[in-house]
Design goal:
The chain is an all-alpha fold and 283 residues long. The protein contains 13 helices and no strands. The chain is globular, with a radius of gyration of 18 Å.
Length: 283
């Protein structure tokens, strides 16, 4: 077991703990593709100084095409579905639906990478999913017909993010994760930037208060630049089926922060314990 890779995945998922709540608030002020493009630009600016300290982006023309394509899927298609889904649905639904990502990763890893789907991994996935259900509490989710397209977008986000995560493991074989992560951001911008141009001609952003700017910086620097790099690093160092289970730290940390700030929550603690056992059984 590569403990550094495991820690990288856990930190990345933990940093995403409050992402859906922040996104939901910001999307009431900033249109989805404008916010997403700003997030990717900040991600590029966060990683660029570190990439420039190295030999640079040493990719062949073929590798450039492959990495840009992977970024288009992850940061263009998947994050677009995530932002649209979060805007049209609820933060609770976003956290609950996207918790299906590790299950999709397991399937894509078997198909694309030939990884084994063992009984122990299936058991770990089941335990972790149970922990997520306990932590999030599905009673907070909303299945109203008015939220149908938002919930469907969230499912598409979980599916395409799983595909992206598996493809990252494939393209980082023999390549440094840091420049690959930066180029993936550029790949996402190939989709989001032109759509943002159309969006800006149809809608206007709300007032950019200090809190809105702070939220955008959080999404761009922390949730994108730092967390996405760590997530890619985890998938580069671990088998995809193992790395995906670190995703369950996201609702666990969110519940832990809630208990710390607002008092003890028995169900959240119980869910966290189940998640811990799942991670111990992951391999």
């Amino acid at each position: 077991m590569d403990w550094f890779g495991l820690l990288a995945g856990l930190i990345a998922a933990s940093l995403w703990g409050g992402m859906y709540v922040v996104s939901k608030v910001l999307l009431d002020v900033v249109p989805p593709f404008t916010l997403l493009t700003a997030r990717l630009v900040l991600g590029v600016l966060t990683l660029l100084p570190f990439v420039l300290r190295k030999p640079g982006i040493a990719l062949t023309r073929r590798q450039w095409g492959q990495v840009l394509g992977v970024g288009l899927i992850g940061y263009g298609v998947s994050l677009s579905f995530q932002f649209i889904g979060t805007k049209l649905s609820t933060a609770a639904n976003g956290s609950l639906v996207t918790s299906a990502t590790p299950a999709f990763v397991l399937l894509f890893a078997a198909w694309i990478l030939g990884e084994r789907v063992t009984r122990l991994r299936l058991a770990a996935l089941g335990l972790a999913t149970l922990g997520v259900v306990i932590v999030i509490d599905p009673r907070n989710a909303h299945l109203s017909p008015n939220l149908f397209w938002g919930n469907l977008s969230l499912v598409a986000a979980a599916l395409t993010w799983a595909l992206y995560s598996v493809l990252v493991r494939k393209v980082t074989r023999g390549l440094a994760v840091l420049p690959v992560s930066l180029v993936c951001f550029l790949g996402g911008m190939l989709l989001t930037t032109p759509v943002m141009g159309i969006e800006r001609s149809l809608t206007q952003a709300g007032p950019l208060t200090p809190w809105v700017i702070l939220g955008i910086l959080y999404l761009g620097v922390i949730s994108t630049g730092l967390a996405m790099y760590l997530w890619n690093l985890a998938f580069a160092r671990l088998e995809a089926g193992v790395a995906s289970l670190t995703f369950f730290a996201q609702p666990g940390v969110g519940a832990g922060l809630g208990a710390l700030l607002f008092g003890p929550a028995v169900m959240s603690v119980l869910g966290g314990i189940v998640l811990l056992f799942a991670r111990r059984a992951r391999a």
